[in-house]
Amino acid sequence: MPVPCKRGCGNNAVLKRPKTGDAICKECFFWAFETEIHYTITKGKLFNKGDSVAVAASGGKDSTVLAHTLKTLNERYNYGLNLMLLSIDEGITGYRDDSLETVKQNRDDYEMPLKILSYKDLYGWTMDEIVAQIGRKNNCTFCGVFRRQALDRGAAMLNVKCIATGHNADDIAETVLMNVLRGDIARLKRCTAITTGSEGTIPRVKPLKYTYEKEIVMYAHYKKLVYFSTECVFAPNAYRGHARALLKDMEKIRPSCIMDIIYSGETMSIKEEVSLPTQRLCIRCNFVSSQEVCKACVLLEGLNKGLPKLGIGKSSKVKKLLDEYNTRQNNLETAVKDLEDCNITDKKTSKTCKNISNGFKQKECNATNCCTNKTERNVEKNNEKLQTVLDKYSLENNSQVKLDEEDSDDSEIKHQDEDDTCSSSCGRLGVGF
Amino acid sequence: MAETLTVEVMFGGGAELLFNKVKRKEIALPPLKTFLPDSQNQNWTLKELLIWLKDNLLVEREELFLKDDSVRPGILVLINEEDWELHGQLNYELKENDKIMFISTLHGG
Ligand SMILES: [Zn+2]
Ligand SMILES: [Zn+2]
């Protein structure tokens, strides 16, 4: 039995909107869906006329719908944006290689330039190779930390004003819930922000912040948008999976709970005595970090030294690992030598900047001289840095103990913000999906 | 009496991965009383269709598709391209040549 469209347009309704409960026809749905995103963009002042904007594209439903909608709105409302697609190739066989094909389809369909950056080029390791080293337990930590920085680097190369990500209302509600469940007040405070990014970084914006997942999927279906849907082949995070399942169960009973949780997150006030980590620049790669050496650099050093657990476990374990490592190396000088050798090797073999060898600004890192002349002046610095770094792992991480608990295997990912965690790819698949 | 009911089932958004990657399939349902003698319904509804799918087409673990007697929250159901929430959900009575689509929202974005 046909249900008439709530808007009185005379058409039959095709879906019930979760946000309002209204029955609505296809045309009115498209209009409402796009107009609400337009409203989110203008009210949040996400863009300025003439901006270059990178859409973080995974080939999945959210980023595909985001790219499509931004193109539509850019033309309809004369945003004057220069839109492009930015994809990260983690090097996960059977997952990312397939989804990148979808991204290339997006590039052709939406006539946007596409930039693909790979972990292999940036860090010297694919996720497949990392998983071969570390096993499947903590791979989301690596993936999330590397992806976050990879997007920053890609955005810098593209010289964009901001990065638009496909996080939807369900994702954000889930993150609020997760941060409550973990007692993670620092992230709780940040995770509902529509624009994130501190000084010196390229801001991330979330135009789909108030858009329900159901509507994104229905929109893609009715518009016949091609997207890629599969699960990440690596182990998902069980805790997040439970949070997601809980949220979906509650949403079924009362769909407005998604908006209500976001609202709660937005309006919750944080007691002043809760100390929030301050942002600074990583002494090695110069990207924003809350530590002297950023997580990506620590993880990478672990990988390159054959200590893949470095930076994952508790600080006491990190210290133990490093002590063992140093014993193996006989003394610190050997370790320093080792680091120098690494740098020299890097100079010869790679044109692409690698964290292990860098102490220079990303901005300088575009020419063929990237990791050559810039590295020279940093080799000597690294000697003292290494000492600092080694001390640091055992000392400063004390403030981090809570976040470093082993069972919260992706807790480190969101150290700075929620943007580039596996929650936008594999993390959400927690209950086996 | 012994007439079968023909409907088309479709799977998308990753739900096809639970059904051996089958994206669409025409199925012939036997009279309801031969499939489920104890059923309280006279005619096939979506509720019985889910049971039939579980018994006949589902290859992955059941809990990835079903929860209690319905689909797992996060799987959308379209009846002839329309949201099943407009059509009584589980109580929708199947008609000849209906197209029933299951779309997962739970796969990566
Ligand atoms: Zn209408
Ligand atoms: Zn760094």
From TrEMBL, chain A:
> One GO MF term, please?
tRNA binding
Q: Which CDD domains match?
A: CTU1-like
Cytoplasmic tRNA 2-thiolation protein 1 C-terminal domain segment(s): 281-310
- Positions of the UniProt region annotated as Disordered: 401-433
PANTHER family under this entry?
A: ATPASES OF THE PP SUPERFAMILY-RELATED, CYTOPLASMIC TRNA 2-THIOLATION PROTEIN 1
Q: Any idea what job this protein has?
A: Plays a central role in 2-thiolation of mcm(5)S(2)U at tRNA wobble positions of tRNA(Lys), tRNA(Glu) and tRNA(Gln). Directly binds tRNAs and probably acts by catalyzing adenylation of tRNAs, an intermediate required for 2-thiolation. It is unclear whether it acts as a sulfurtransferase that transfers sulfur from thiocarboxylated URM1 onto the uridine of tRNAs at wobble position.
Name-wise, this protein is Cytoplasmic tRNA 2-thiolation protein 1
Q: Native species of this protein?
A: Bombyx mori (Silk moth)
